[in-house]
Amino acid sequence: MRCFHAGNAILLSGPFGVKYLQPFGLAISKRQAAGIQVFFSGINRKLTSIFYFVRFTALLTIRAMRETLELPSFRVIRYRTGILLLSALFPVIWISASGCSIKTKIKVDVPQGIRQAKTASHEELLEILRRYDKVNNLSCNEVELAFTSSQKIENGTSLELDKYKAVGGYILLKRPDSVHLVIKAPIVNSTLLDVVSVGDDFSVWSPRENRLYAGKNSARELMMEGPSGEKDFAVPIRGSHIFEAILPQSIVPDAPDTWVVREQQVDGRSSYYVLSIQKEVKWPIMRTIRKIWIERSGLTIARQQVFGDQDEVVSDIRYFDEVRKEGLSLPKRIQIDRPLDKYTLDLRFTDWKVNSPDLPEDAFELPPLPPNAEVVHLKEK
Predict the structure, then answer these.
(1) Can you name the residues that pair with 348 across neighbouring β-strands?
(2) pLDDT tens digits, 124-171
(3) How far apart are CA 364 and CA 32, in angstroms?
(4) How much is the pLDDT for 24?
(5) Tell me, what's the pLDDT at 18?
(6) Structural domain of residue 33, as residue ranges?
(7) CA nearest 32: which of 2, 10, 1?
(8) Are both 144 and 241 inside the same structural domain?
(9) Do 83 and 133 have their domain in common?
(10) What are the residues facing 182 on neighbouring strands?
(11) Phi, psi of 374 (to 5 degrees)
């Protein structure tokens, strides 16, 4: 390749008969022109070497094909083949010769939940759950509920979802297993439903319908059955579902036939310790009955999974936006997904009150019912 200095421009000519005129807008000295000529001469040598290498490789390939297939010589084809191969490789050759790199470096920010992950011992993780045992009662005066039910249609190949508008209310919990949930109507603030769950007894009072629904928490599937015996619909929600979500049960490591296994998991946002509570079925067969996911940056419970006898997911509970109350991390949002019961419940809390000393004795009793109230017994299907 040759380089000619002509005033404010440089004229270049290469081995392929190509001439290139590049105006610079500034006067270029002979020394600068000589430096540019040396630079492009180096590129010219690279291009020439690669050109003859590709041409030589193409000739060998065609010769081998001719000897194998006993074809006549194709000098014109060999020449054109070499040119085609060189044309295909020219962009790569040009990038390499011009000093550009194909590899690029991209800066990726590590999420805060992974970057600030803490280390905790097995005993420290168990202590996180034991803190909930110190809660005797828990209440929130403003809670928002959003309920979604699902039903399989078209031979089980799709789902039909019924989403209900979010409603407000308040909730009380008391150990060992009592829940009182009052759901209020928007605007007028009147009671829509009054739900009380104590032990295995589950009751729902509907003032608008003047009906009291009564059933058992232990029932697999509850159906509404009126005085005439007509079955109308299933009642999926239980007070025990809400209690176990808000106040997770602690782990007793020395319980008979019970094992606790710890592992680590990472998703796109955070790093977790996962405690798997396993029950011995018949040695050496173990069955996982519960999993507790503890987010490592804050060492708070992020998820709880409960499994059935056939290893199916009975309840998948997720916790969001924890706040500190009385030395305890309590979520401002809980999402309960019950795939077997075919519903999802989204609970949002404004503020928590822990271990209130002035909780009334009748806090977990329904108000007196009207004399003409109808009692509907919810029976297991």
Answers:
(1) 144, 333
(2) 999 999 999 999 999 999 999 999 987 665 555 555 667 777 899 999
(3) 93
(4) 43
(5) 39
(6) 2-97
(7) 10
(8) yes
(9) no
(10) 170, 194
(11) -90, 135
